[in-house]
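User: Could you write out the 3D structure of this protein bound to flavin-adenine dinucleotide? I've included everything you need below.
Assistant: Certainly. Input first, then the structure.
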Amino acid sequence: MTAPLRSPAPHVVIVGGGGTGAALALDLVLRGLRVTLVERGEITSGTTGRHHGLLHSGARYAVNDAESAIECIEENQLLRRVAPGSFEENDGLFVGIDDEDMAYGEKLFAACGETGIPARWLSPAEALHLEPNLNPDLKGAIQVPDATFDAMRLPLRWFATAKAHGAVIQPFCEVTGMVVRNACVMGVRGRDHRTERDFEVGADLVVNAGGPWAEKIAAMAGVDVPIRPSPGVLLALRGRLCNMVVNRMHKSGDGDIVVPQRALSIVGTSSWVVNDPDDLGVPEDHVQKMYDEGSKIIPAVRSAPFRQAWSAARPLIGGPGGADTGRELSRTFKCFDHMERDGVDGFVTISGGKATTARAMAETTADVVCRKLGIDMPCLTRQTVLLPHTAYYAA
Ligand SMILES: Cc1cc2nc3c(=O)[nH]c(=O)nc-3n(C[C@H](O)[C@H](O)[C@H](O)COP(=O)(O)OP(=O)(O)OC[C@H]3O[C@@H](n4cnc5c(N)ncnc54)[C@H](O)[C@@H]3O)c2cc1C
């Protein structure tokens, strides 16, 4: 695999083929740049291919993390327009089952108003009419515009549209080092696992979109980024126990969400912090917690047939120490220009955020990339309707 170091349009190499890298590849090619994206495994094989598939309304973050809540509701509304057909527009319920939940519900309802998230209170009878499998002792519920999507197919639409505009997508190409000269990143080198050959690609700028691996990738350029990989366990049960996204009406905690995905119900999630995103495991007590807590909002969780349990790591922003579980860390995102931060030019890192906010993360990053490369082109991903996911594999 080769790419010229210089040519009429600047060449950007993106490291990481999750949703963030996918949305960024599209944003940059629409602004006229040449893009090569390298991903060490199959595209979406990192955290992107392993989350709940919840299009956040932002309500989960409204009380404690308003910045992230606002990002989520803006993208929730925008993505429905540019990716029609990708979402099951099923809404979500926050369900209160004790007095403490109901007290939290008052704060949640007010915070939704402050962050622009449409919300309405439902009586127990109204909630049970919408979702008959809810805990029959519930005390009340709040309806919000959550939605669900296929975790892999939405990013595939960004990849497909980026490819149609000339982006080169290289799965199974693992970056193992950076080409650095005079404190400037000039490209990447690595191993193409399809051919078992080494490669080197020149670039005018390299973007690290490595999600929870971003710290490891940044270290190859001799810089540090404050990423805290924070895994969570997910449990898939056979049978669709609800049609809406069902959340417990309380501060974010273990096993407090049930997400319908096709004919499955996904119960999530736990949260802890690790140093190595390749070493997560699936702690048995976390799986048990999904059953115990999930069955408090939908009792049928307890007896639903087991399909699978797995874990994935959130790429949260926060240095070592100061975070015991990861729940204390914001879900917002940050773009690091390593020239401003570390004196290393030609290198930018994007991390944090949610799958829901991948497009916004890409827009912020592409603004930084274009400013650094002296390009004055507006973002077009707010209005560009995406190709279907099937177009990615079409010749
Ligand atoms: C348990 C859990 C549940 C979640 N649920 C939701 C949800 O329902 N809704 C939501 O909006 N968000 C959710 N999230 C958050 C969301 O999944 C992530 O924020 C998002 O997927 C991160 O995408 P990314 O592209 O930044 O990272 P990733 O998808 O991890 O992409 C980074 C990529 O970089 C690649 N890479 C690493 N090293 C190299 C290298 N050396 N060379 C080349 N490539 C490399 C990796 O293989 C990976 O594919 C959840 C997160 C977790 C952990």
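The domain at 90-148+228-317 is CATH 3.30.9.10 (D-Amino Acid Oxidase; Chain A, domain 2).
User: Perfect, thank you.
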